[in-house]
């Protein structure tokens, strides 16, 4: 991915705003953030139904208020190891636009923290080198104290990941 | 809900009118002297003109007016109906459709050309000398005054009363009176007898009736035309009065108008279009309510949720000892079942509405190709989900076109082959289990298998000499870009279409069967599931997961004994009443990683003639299944056609029968080839 595209994606998520309202959660020790406006609901873990033959990234479905929605595991996209569910585990239901149509997806998380605002000034585009994750899966990194928060690019992850993991 | 766009309302109405006019015209071709049909077409044209003008489609109204005028003369017997006239009006009707869809477009040239054709058709057919085809702009005026109209004028006594809500509905009585005045000298009297006391008077209601004495040079029809839009709801009595008695009639009190006039001329004045005569036509049309499809869909969703809630309730009640609770739960179950059935019926539309469109298509194709074609339809009353009907329209057009263009031979070729000159295309629909089967059958030359094979080999679809079953070979015609037509005609032969047919049918979870006999014709059957929303399913357990098999596909359930299971290792066939049935172990297919139950069951499912057994761990029972579509992220999983929600809130996946049967058949073919 060339630097211009990265810059474009970076600008896209901020849309000239100084602050971004996000929901933060953790996965295998890393802190992630999703734009709060896309979050539909946070659920306790529900019984999942495995879909035989589906990609491991979206291996199951749940009943979300009478709708059958897929459950995705972001760990797969970021090459993390699967962990056992804990008492803190939650499902975050987000609305994505896939192929021009809205689509609800549940994301498995280890723990949901808070809804907060992230300042634009602290944000950086993902570094092109020196990162073990695919750069186009990440909108930007936001410094927070000594650590940083990852804002994943869900659209890209969901439209490319299944094909990749199948290969 | 959004408020209704009047233009849209008009377009819907116009579409219906076009359908009505068209079917009338086509009926007319069978019997050119059928007065009822002529009247029906005329009425359709007239309404179209009227509503067109009302909604601002001026060009349409003006153009339709000419067609109406032409038909008016047919209606009055001044000119006979001819094939040319019907053809001209059919063409004109297509132009009207264009005028409705793009009123701003430049239609002048087409309008004039069509009108010229129309007048040629009417004028050329005129048998008597006194009807002279007038130049276009004056056509209306000339025709409006029938040649037989008396020179001096006739006296009429007209008594009419509009419904009380007429003014709310936008009818202006003054306008009607003005129109009457334009016809000739008239005296108007108001009938005030029914005006209530001030206390009970509704200011928006119309209480006044009128009686009019009119002397006009224009005939009785001109009077009818004044009232044509309000005639259905109003009381009207028109009596022809001998001129000398005009004065007496004038003197009579308005109330007298209610009693029939005693004159002998009454017979002649018997209104051709008075309300009394109308029921003959009106009675045919059942009372309908037009509901936007999306509201039906909303209702469908609610019913779906109710069905889910109900199955949870009956599960609770089943595990409880409370008899009252059980009784209530059973009632709710019955009610929700009935509600579901009613709901399904609401969405059902008779296939006839779809078949109707093909009469025109066949008519046009017959003219274009010079073939003599007869279209027969069967089972028009078979009902199918509305969505299915809409989506099937295009594929069926392709199939009918193909039958006519590729299948049917030209008349001389047919005669040479010892067949009847008239080629027959039969469109039929019937219900069979949970499927509706729509068949397009022709008695043409049939599909030439050698040419299909040659074409498939030359375009690389199959290897030269590749072994194919007959059905596989015939199915090749549905491959994209496949066409055996040596020449590309205007109708078909471009190789687009047949693959669209296949895609559409598959999207509806349907299957296509092709049968063809050389020299005898071919038959293409579309098998489509009846509904897309709720089905009866058989709930089974495989490993730890629950799955639903559409009950309509289930043939039987049997036990797979341990011996059978062991014996069938490696060959996966069982013998079922002397038939070998291949089976699939769903546990292995779904990679459950669990040991098989001691007593495994086998569910035999079928589509058409093909059967396949599915080995499951347990059969739980039947289950009303509300189909939820799978997310886009799972579109690559072909084993399942959807998902449903169980009574306990869990999700069960619905097996895609067509796919599983195909897998089973493939496995069978594979094993046969190997063994």
UniProtKB/TrEMBL annotation, chain A:
Entry's Gene Ontology BP terms: chemotaxis; signal transduction
Cross-referenced Gene3D superfamilies: CheA-289, Domain 4, SH3 Domains
Matching InterPro entries: CheW, CheW-like_dom_sf, CheW-lke_dom
Alphabetized PROSITE patterns for the sequence: CHEW
Domain (CheW-like): residue spans on this chain: 19-163
SMART domains cross-referenced by the UniProt entry: CheW (SM00260)
Pfam families: CheW (PF01584)
One of the record's GO cellular component terms: cytosol
Alphabetical list of PANTHER family matching this protein: CHEMOTAXIS PROTEIN CHEW (PTHR22617:SF23), CHEMOTAXIS SENSOR HISTIDINE KINASE-RELATED (PTHR22617)
Record-given protein name: Chemotaxis protein CheW
Species for this entry: Xaviernesmea rhizosphaerae
UniProtKB/TrEMBL annotation, chain B:
Record EC number: 2.7.13.3
Cellular-component GO terms for this entry: cytoplasm
Catalytic reactions of this protein: ATP + protein L-histidine = ADP + protein N-phospho-L-histidine
UniProt key word Iron-sulfur: no
Domain CheW-like: 534-666
Compositionally biased region (Low complexity): 251-264
Protein name: Chemotaxis protein CheA
Source organism of this protein record: Xaviernesmea rhizosphaerae
């Amino acid at each position: 991915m060339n630097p211009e595209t990265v810059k474009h994606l970076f600008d896209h998520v901020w849309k000239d705003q100084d602050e971004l309202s996000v929901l933060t959660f953790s996965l295998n020790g890393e802190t992630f953030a999703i734009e709060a406006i896309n979050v539909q609901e946070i659920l306790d873990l529900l019984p999942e139904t495995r879909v035989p033959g589906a990609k491991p990234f979206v291996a199951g479905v749940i009943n979300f208020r009478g709708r059958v929605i897929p459950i995705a595991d972001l760990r797969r996209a970021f090459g993390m190891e699967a962990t056992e569910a804990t008492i803190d585990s939650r499902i975050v239901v987000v609305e994505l636009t896939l192929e021009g149509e809205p689509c609800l997806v549940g994301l498995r998380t280890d723990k949901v923290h808070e809804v907060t605002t992230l300042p634009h000034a602290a944000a950086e585009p993902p570094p092109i080198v020196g990162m073990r994750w695919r750069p186009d899966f990440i909108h930007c990194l936001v410094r927070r104290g000594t650590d940083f928060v990852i804002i994943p690019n869900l659209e890209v992850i969901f439209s490319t990941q299944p094909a990749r993991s199948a290969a | 809900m959004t408020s209704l766009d009047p233009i849209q309302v008009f377009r819907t109405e116009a579409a219906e009118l076009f359908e009505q006019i068209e079917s009338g015209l086509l009926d007319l071709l069978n019997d050119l002297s059928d007065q009822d049909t002529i009247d029906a077409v005329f009425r359709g044209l007239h309404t179209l003109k009227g509503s067109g003008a009302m909604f601002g489609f001026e060009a349409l109204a003006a153009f339709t007016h000419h067609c109406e005028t032409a038909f008016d003369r047919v209606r009055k017997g001044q000119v006979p109906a001819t094939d040319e006239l019907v053809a001209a009006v059919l063409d004109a009707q297509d132009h009207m459709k264009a005028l409705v869809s793009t009123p701003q477009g430049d239609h002048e040239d087409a309008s004039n050309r069509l009108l010229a054709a129309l007048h040629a058709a009417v004028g050329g057919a005129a048998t008597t000398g006194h009807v002279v085809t007038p130049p276009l702009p004056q056509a209306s005026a000339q025709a409006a005054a029938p040649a037989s109209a008396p020179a001096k004028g006739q006296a009429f006594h007209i008594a009419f009363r509009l419904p009380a809500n007429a003014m709310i509905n936008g009818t202006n009585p003054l306008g009607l009176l003005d129109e009457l005045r334009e016809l000739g000298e008239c005296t108007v009297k108001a009938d005030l007898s029914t005006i209530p006391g001030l206390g009970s008077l509704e200011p928006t209601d119309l209480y006044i009736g009128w009686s009019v004495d009119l002397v006009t040079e224009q005939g009785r029809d001109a009077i009818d035309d004044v009232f044509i839009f309000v005639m259905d709801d109003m009381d009207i009595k028109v009596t022809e009065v001998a001129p000398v008695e005009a004065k007496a009639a004038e003197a009579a009190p308005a109330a007298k108008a209610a009693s029939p006039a005693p004159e002998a001329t009454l017979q002649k004045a018997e209104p051709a279009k008075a309300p009394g005569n109308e029921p003959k036509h009106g009675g045919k049309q059942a009372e309908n309510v037009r509901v936007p499809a999306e509201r039906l869909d909303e209702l469908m969703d609610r019913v779906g949720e109710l069905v889910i809630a109900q199955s949870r309730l009956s599960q609770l009640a089943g595990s409880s000892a409370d008899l009252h609770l059980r009784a209530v739960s059973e009632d709710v179950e019955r009610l929700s079942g009935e509600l579901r059935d009613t709901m399904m019926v609401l969405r059902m539309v008779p296939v006839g509405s779809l078949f109707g469109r093909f009469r025109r298509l066949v008519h046009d194709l017959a003219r274009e190709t010079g073939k003599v074609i007869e279209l027969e339809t069967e089972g028009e009353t078979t009902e199918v989900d509305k969505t299915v009907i809409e989506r099937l329209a295009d594929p069926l057009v392709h199939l009918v076109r193909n039958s006519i263009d590729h299948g049917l031979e030209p008349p001389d070729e047919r005669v040479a082959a010892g067949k009847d000159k008239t080629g027959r295309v039969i469109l039929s629909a019937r219900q069979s289990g949970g499927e509706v089967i729509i068949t397009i059958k022709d008695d043409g030359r049939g599909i030439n298998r050698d040419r299909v094979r040659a074409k498939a080999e030359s375009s690389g679809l199959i290897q030269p000499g590749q072994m194919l079953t007959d059905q596989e070979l015939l199915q090749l015609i549905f491959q994209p870009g496949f066409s055996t037509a040596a020449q590309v005609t205007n109708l078909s032969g471009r190789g687009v279409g047949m693959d669209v047919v296949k895609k559409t049918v598959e999207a509806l979870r349907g299957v296509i069967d092709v049968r063809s006999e050389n020299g005898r014709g071919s038959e293409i059957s579309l098998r489509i599931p009846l509904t897309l929303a709720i089905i009866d399913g058989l709930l089974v357990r495989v490993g730890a997961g629950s799955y639903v098999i559409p009950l309509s596909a289930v043939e039987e359930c049997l036990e797979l004994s341990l011996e059978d299971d062991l014996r069938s290792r490696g060959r996966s066939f069982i013998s079922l009443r002397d038939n070998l049935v291949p089976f699939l172990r769903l546990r292995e297919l779904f990679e459950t990683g669990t040991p098989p139950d001691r007593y495994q069951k086998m569910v035999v499912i079928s589509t058409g003639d093909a059967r396949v057994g599915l080995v499951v761990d347990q059969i739980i029972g039947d289950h009303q299944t509300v189909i939820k579509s799978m997310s886009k992220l799972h579109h690559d999983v072909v084993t399942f056609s959807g998902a449903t929600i169980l009574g306990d809130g869990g999700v069960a996946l619905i097996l895609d029968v067509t796919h599983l049967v195909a897998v089973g058949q493939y496995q069978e073919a594979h094993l046969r080839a190997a063994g």
